[in-house]
């Protein structure tokens, strides 16, 4: 048992893997924040989608009018879905990349740029910034993931 | 080769990692069930979104009337998306947490509470239960994930 | 440090793990392609959802008419969401399956069928092919994931 634990510890003690663990966790926490922002806008804009969520506003028509879409709520939800679409590939490809033996400095560059790009993307979406702010921040994160995928396939291709 | 296999076996033989593998698989199977429930409601409520899905109901207007949204279908789909938004962070952060050397009992507590909370969330969404049933089950899973993220960052922060 | 690196190298050098890394990366790249196809249809169909995305088409009513939904855009988006719903379970369960010590030939069979099924699913969705083309390709990928989940739970169940 303690031998196995030591083996696992070696994985988490590896610098590249620790960097991956750090940035993957940060970017997932950022994504989870979108749920809180959605809830915040649903409550302040009084815009809900489930009838049981408006029960506290009274019965019948008085509650029903809060079952509506709100532009701010929908905007956060689009940002959240865009996070899912882009952070899931980063998680999967990034893990394999971290295990493919990259230079620490190169790996840090990938992880930091991706994380920075996704934080910028969220600000660009929620403020919102004029285009191409959101488009560029999306593209940078996308390009970083492609670059890591290339390294993974170059190192370990096994079809 | 057999040496490598032994090395991998050590990973899957580690108790914390096995517990992670078990609960991650269970919670993913639960999420996959949402696809079947969506299909069930689409077929029983005759509410489809793709024209090619209604071709067996005849041509023209007779089929077109089944291209519609249905409250039950939309409810399951919201539950499915909420699963994605919450289970993806659990998968990523939970894996890193399992590799960060937690006590087995503490790890089991995290995995079991998260899995239980997500099962409750699904029931709360589909029945539906009055609020704050769904809200609380969502918050418990969210808090468990935050707790695991804290452990990962405390153990292995590498910025 | 070099000892740890060697340990990691053993993981990526393992044939089953390399096969997982290869197919997981391919299927994630395929999913990422959906973002580009969505962008392509949004631009060619001039159908946007964010006001800031139509600013280059002029101001006021002239730009506002491009804030609309388009059947082709919505179709790609549904395919993208279906990818997320099915590829996330494959990533998580597939990783655990790869670590559960399957035969290389069995593992390759699972990974190849899943990847082929998801590529077919995308073509079936985007062309679109008549049903049950899309339904079958979805079901095949689903069944492969269930099969891997069964192996994971049989090998390492720890509740």
From TrEMBL, chains A, B, C:
One GO term describing the cellular component: mitochondrial outer membrane
EC number: 2.5.1.18
UniProt-listed InterPro entries: MAPEG-like_dom_sf (IPR023352), Membr-assoc_MAPEG (IPR001129), MGST1-like (IPR040162)
Membrane-traversing stretches: 20-41, 87-115
Class in the EC hierarchy, top level: transferase
Catalytic activity: RX + glutathione = an S-substituted glutathione + a halide anion + H(+)
Membrane topology value: Multi-pass membrane protein
GO molecular function per UniProt: glutathione transferase activity
Cell location: Endoplasmic reticulum membrane; Mitochondrion outer membrane
Functional note: Conjugation of reduced glutathione to a wide number of exogenous and endogenous hydrophobic electrophiles.
Family in the record: Belongs to the MAPEG family.
Oligomer status and interactors: Homotrimer; The trimer binds only one molecule of glutathione.
Protein name (Swiss-Prot/TrEMBL): Microsomal glutathione S-transferase 1
